[in-house]
Amino acid sequence: MSKLTEKQKRFVDCYVESGNGTQSYIDAGYKATSRAVAEANARKLLANYSVKKYMEERMKKIESEKIASQEEILSYLTSVLRGETTEEVLRGVGKGAQTVDSLEVSAKDRIKAAELLGKRYAIWTDNKNIDVQGVVTFVDDIGDEDET
């Protein structure tokens, strides 16, 4: 992959945010005599192999930052189950005023976390996966009685 210029990188960053190639081309600092020229040049940039690769990298990074991993989810559920997590709740203090209190997670939420963890680790499953290897033989004896 060839080295991208700062303007190309800015273009990709703007495009990832807005999805508008023409405006991203202008916002990145490129000069264009008209919007039609900016649009055409933006299409050329979007077709550029190096720009495409850089955009894929940026999208993967954004995606990985926004989506919780399996380990993160299991860790959170475990902290809820153990009562290590608190939640903020509004509490009225009179005359229409409210304050924010930090409370332990309710027993209902802790039970739900335990249930979800139990499902993940198949603790609550009565069905057992049994691997049986063997041979099944089918005997077709219908019609043997008629021949005698």
Automatic annotation (TrEMBL):
Organism encoding this protein: Salipaludibacillus agaradhaerens (Bacillus agaradhaerens)
Highest taxon, organism lineage: Bacteria
The protein's name in its UniProt record: Terminase small subunit
One BP term from GO: chromosome organization
Lyase as UniProt keyword: no
UniProt KW keywords: Viral genome packaging, Viral release from host cell
